[in-house]
Amino acid sequence: MAMAMSDSGASRLRRQLESGSFEARLYVKQLSQQSDGDRDLQEHRQRIQALAEETAQNLKRNVYQNYRQFIETAREISYLESEMYQLSHLLTEQKSNLESIPLTLLPAAAAAAAGAATASGGEEGGGSAGGRDHLRGQAGFFPSPGGASRDSSGPGEEGKQRTLTTLLEKVEGCRHLLETPGQYLVYNGDLVEYEADHMAQLQRVHGFLMNDCLLVATWLPQRRGMYRYDALYPLDGLAVVNVKDNPPMKDMFKLLMFPESRIFQAENAKIKREWLEVLEETKRALSEKRRREQEEAAAPRGPPQVTSKASNPFEDEDDDEPAVPEAEEEKVDLSMEWIQELPEDLDVCIAQRDFEGAVDLLDKLNQYLEDKPSPPAVKELRARVDERVRQLTEVLVFELSPDRSLRGGPKATRRAVSQLIRLGQCTKACELFLRNRAAAVHTAIRQLRIEGATLLYIHKLCHVFFTSLLETAREFEADFAGTDGGCYSAFVVWARSALGTFAAAFSKQVFDSKESLSTAAECVKVAKEHCQQLGDIGLDLTFIIHTLLVKDIQGALHSYKEIIIEATKHRNSEEMWRRMNLMTPEALGKLKEEMKSCGVRNFEQYTGDDCWVNLSYTVVAFTKQTMGFLEEALKLYFPELHMVLLESLVEIILVAVQHVDYSLRCEQDPEKKNFIRQNASFLYETVLPVVEKRFEEGVGKPAKQLQDLRNASRLIRVNPESTTSVV
Fold first, then answer.
1. How far is CA 346 from its chain centroid?
2. Residues annotated as region Disordered (predicted)?
3. End-to-end CA distance of the chain
């Protein structure tokens, strides 16, 4: 029901747009008033766009369907024009002959003229081909003055080949043509090429028409009488169209070689007519020759004569297997209509972008010719088909090129990829598919807007990248499921490269901008979570993410470690070893919650009356800062960072422990000395065990260095003359 309503709505919209009284401005104004919001306008826009695409496809299909009919019609018009010209010429000659006859012979001559006119009219009515043969038989082939000539060598193939060799020796870059057996020159002459769109003169050329192809060569101005090879067109793929005179553009004809065309101008109308006639004659002769060859190849042969064993004294007497006649091996029927029309059908499929239909035709031909011999007719057919296969491959390759639109996601490439795989181009399909997706990923990342909040940008970046990677992996698995494993290894290499692009954008936004360690840890955590989603399809790239980010994470840990050490040393230099007075119960309660979140459960025993805390401000600040560093570092942790994190913790703890130990040695006031011992006890018996336990929970194994640091009775050697300690 919904589809029927949609079809009726599309038909109504089409009628409304096609009406003669349609005004775009009024239509848009009315539509804006009737729509409920942006969604209605978007849906209507999509319907109009779909209708435009459908109209474009129908127009393209109609153009290609009428393409050959247009060529044939133009060709017949050219035939009729030439025949009418020759008929007018003959009648003029007959009139002049009649006027020169004496009056006494007028009755007999008039009767003869009437008979000739009747015969000419009958042949014209019998068909254009018969009329052309009759006129050509009476008038002969026009001699070519100046720049055009027809082959005048003897009928022997050797004479024709010698003439072709002599002429082609004047053309640079076409020596390979001389190696084609049975090829000879039919006609040649000078032409001027014009641009098809603006009819501007391009260059002077010389055309060499052989019995199976047309060679176009350009003039070499600095070398008189010499040419340079420009193009070679097989006659079976060439269409000739007469161009109507439109002064000053006259004596022109067009050559159509799908999908291109070229326009040439002859020296005069006579030479133009000769070119048109001889091109059609040669094409017709070539078509007839190939038809006869195919019929001969398909015709049944008589039983071959087998040489008796008695007449061959060198034959092995024990060999009783009968020899397979060579004539029977070369028997392949190519006279079927679908085989005859296969090259043209492939051209139509390629022009209409019916890639599936083209590959279906190729599969049908390959199945038919499978296990069959390859006589010359089959080889010739395969050569013509291979040229279409090359054209089809080029079109499919262009469909997958990054220059095309990257919208539609990976599924938009499925059509071209599947047809390339069917053509046996699996490796090329894999390479182009992955190159297309790499360009799409790069474009999607580049189009992301850099938000003010780094974490928000990283969320968008991870969503865009890993969603695209996941869709690409699923589409790759669907397209290349039946291929060898080499394509899958290529996909893994591509995924590694794509992750490099992602890591570069990630590091630039997170680490190069000197974000805090907590922000960096949250961003890395988000990236890991998205990367783990690829495990649903059996693709684990977490280790690659670690490898690509390890250097930046090490730098961030080292930088934050240095910040903590500098802050601790600064507080140590101003240490007065006094108890903390938080002034309000709310501040004390907040500190208790902070220490509890750091893992210090017995902080109550270090609080005194009112709002006093029996610890130094330096030790409390150090505890909060160290536990915060450990928590954020564990979010960044993976095995490659184990020693980096452990060494950073040891360096940070040593700064505080050395300061407490040095103060305990140097302090002379008994009351302050007891307070320092209380702070040292808090560090050794509370803070360090909490650090060890949290590290073991986050990493999965204990840290011997932290245990040794806590258990050592004298960790450092003190320089009495300095306020700093030495390890």
1. 22
2. 118-161, 287-328
3. 84
- Asked whether the beta carbons of 619 and 678 are under 8 A apart, the reply is no
Q: What is the dihedral of CA 529, 532, 534, 537, to 10 degrees?
A: -140
For residue 154, what pLDDT is reported? 45
Cα within 13 Å of Cα(451), Cβ side? 9
DSSP string covering 520-588: HHHHHHHHHHHHHGGGGGT---HHHHHHHHHHHHHHHHHHHHHHHHHHHHHHHHT----EEE--SHHHH
Task: Report CA 259 to chain centroid distance, whole Å.
Answer: 21
**Residue 528 near residue 636 (C-beta atoms within 8 A):** no
* pLDDT value of position 167: 72
User: Is 723 strand, coil or helix?
Assistant: coil
Nearest-angstrom CA–CA distance, 118 and 123? 9
Token pair of 229 as six digits = 């090879």
Cα(231)–Cα(260) distance, integer angstroms = 12
Confirm if 162 and 153 have CB atoms less than 8 A apart: yes
Tokens of 418: 């599947």
CA angle 356, 360, 362 (to 5 degrees): 120
Beta bridge partners of 188: 149, 208
Query: How far is Cα 717 from Cα 727, in angstroms, rounded to an integer?
Result: 6
3-state secondary structure 631-693: HHHHHHCCHHHHHHHHHHHHHHHHHHHHHHHHHHHHCCCHHHHHHHHHHHHHHHHHHHHHHHH
Average pLDDT score over the chain = 77
Report d(CA 28, CA 15) in Å as an integer: 16
User: Is residue 205 a contact partner of residue 214, using CB atoms and an 8 Å limit?
Assistant: no
Render 71-140 in DSSP notation, one character per residue.
Answer: HHHHHHHHHHHHHHHHHHHHHHHHHHHHHHS-GGGHHHHHHHHHHHHHHHHHHHHT-HHHHHHHHHHHH-
Span 216-231, pLDDT tens digits: 999 888 777 788 888 8
pTM of the model: 0.48
Question: In sequence order, which residues have a C-beta less than 8 Å from that of residue 721 and are 6 or more positions away?
Answer: none
The C-alpha torsion from 367 through 370 and 375 to 376, rounded to 10°, is 40
Distance CA 287, CA 338 (A): 16
Give the per-residue pLDDT at 162.
67
- Beta carbons within 8 Å of 204's beta carbon, 6+ residues apart: 190, 191, 192, 193, 218, 219
Q: What is the DSSP string of 462-494?
A: HHHHHHHHHHHHHHHHHHSTTS-THHHHHHHHH
